[in-house]
Design a protein that fits this description.
Layout (H helix, E strand, L loop, with lengths): L1 H12 L10 H29 L25 H15 L5 H25 L9 H21 L5 E4 L13 E4 L3 E3 L7 E3 L13 H23 L5 H20 L2 H7 L10 H19 L8 H18 L6 H4 L1 H24 L11 H7 L4 H21 L5
Antiparallel strand pairs: 1-2, 3-4
Helix pairs in contact: 2-3, 2-9, 3-4, 3-9, 3-10, 4-5, 4-10, 5-6, 6-10, 6-12, 7-9, 7-10, 7-14
Length: about 400
């Protein structure tokens, strides 16, 4: 909103300083500062309101050290993240940008799914919350919206340059903005993969949209649930999401900048740079929330926050065509997901074969395994963050390591 206001003031009245709102870097700084203020300052009021409404966490006794001391801690703190993310994004981003609109819709959509889950747990006293099938239906719905928009929207394009002019400095670039299902592949020379190749020549390319939508559904569901599973100890999901969002912000800036994308020889996506403002608000919101969620947590984000974090991260990665970097970028979420799959699968297999279920981990997901081994949760969180930073560096290194 502020972008359009100051654009009007600059063009109509030549208002001093109004032109600075044209710069992504300035608006990103404004977004992160605003989100930090909302999260850190108004977060306390939201926590007090949650306490007043007696919205406390119901803790199952899993035999973890210090676990029962958290009983009654306010939950649904994801509202802090939602407010600190949506308000700055609406203020500083271009609301006509299709990528920003998708990110905003994804935030509200997944936030509502998480809210319904928390509402059933807290107010209906049903510890199971929203049934898994309804969560999946909601995630599939979002995947369809995102996939169809990115495939069919006329403003979603990539820029292709004429190769013969790339090295000629005194001749203007010759390029074409085209619709494409190309995406980025790490560690390979041409760094690109076309989803149409998944048809294997059995169907016409016009059916590629079906493949692409299915990929979007799978990625959004997997990453959203991965973040949800990771939200098990104080500060883990929020801190990990900050690292991932910073990585996506760098990738979005490079992919949306003509000079840097040509220098790095990566896909140039016109208008994708606007997502840097959204990522900045995302980071600020998570940092502001982490002020209250770090050990010992004064509030839990609940599914209102965790499902939203993962869903939005997936959509951002899809928007800048870096979804195939998710295994490295979101490696913590992936490891948590896989640990649960392995644990459940092995337990069922051994129960069927030996009549008694056996476990590989002391407890799943993975962070609970380390808690059972006697590590303090603050140490586990810190080390997971360190691993997350290493994975982020590896993800950025893929821009040149091919």
């Amino acid at each position: 909103m502020l972008y359009y206001l100051f654009q009007f003031l600059d063009e109509r009245y030549n208002f001093p300083g109004a032109g600075v709102f044209q710069f992504i870097s300035f608006r990103a700084l404004g977004a992160v500062a605003t989100s930090l203020i909302i999260g850190a300052v108004f977060g306390r009021r939201i926590i007090d309101k949650l306490r007043q409404l007696q919205i406390g966490e119901s803790i199952r006794d899993l035999g973890l050290e210090g676990q029962m001391q958290k009983r009654g801690t306010p939950t649904m703190g994801g509202f802090i993240i939602l407010a600190a993310l949506l308000i700055p994004a609406l203020l500083f981003a271009k609301l006509s940008n299709v990528y920003v609109v998708l990110a905003l819709v994804s935030t509200v959509w997944t936030g509502m799914i998480g809210f319904l889950d928390d509402y059933i747990k807290v107010f209906k006293k049903n510890k199971e919350g929203l049934q898994g099938k309804f969560k999946v239906v909601g995630q599939i719905g979002l995947g369809m919206i995102v996939g169809l928009t990115l495939y069919f929207n006329d403003y979603v394009k990539i820029r292709v340059y004429a190769p013969r002019l790339l090295s000629t400095s005194n001749v203007p670039d010759v390029y074409t903005d085209i619709k494409s299902t190309l995406t980025t592949v790490p560690f390979v020379k041409n760094n690109e993969f076309d989803y149409s190749s998944l048809l294997f020549g059995l169907l016409p390319d016009s059916y590629t949209w079906i493949v692409y939508v299915l990929v979007c559904i799978f990625i959004i569901t997997a990453v959203s649930n991965g973040a949800n599973i990771t939200d098990g100890i104080d500060g883990l999901a929020a801190g990990t999401s900050i690292i991932i969002a910073l990585t996506i912000a760098v990738l979005a800036y490079l992919s949306g900048n003509k000079v840097f994308s040509q220098y790095l020889n990566i896909m140039y996506i016109p208008n994708a740079g606007e997502l840097v403002i959204f990522c900045a608000a995302f980071v600020g919101a998570c940092v502001g929330f982490l002020w209250y969620n770090s050990y010992p947590a004064q509030v839990f984000m609940g599914d209102t926050g965790s499902l939203m974090l993962g869903g939005v991260i997936a959509v951002l990665a899809l928007a800048i065509r870096k979804e195939l970097l998710i295994p490295s970028m979101c490696g913590i979420f992936l490891a948590e997901n896989i640990s649960v799959i392995i644990q459940v699968s092995y337990f069922k297999y051994t129960k069927q074969k030996y009549g008694e279920g056996r476990r590989i981990f002391l407890m799943a997901p993975l962070h609970h395994h380390f808690q059972k081994k006697g590590y303090h949760e603050a140490k586990i969180v810190t080390r997971f963050w360190i691993v997350g930073i290493i994975l982020a560096v590896l993800t950025l290194a893929t821009l040149k390591l091919r």
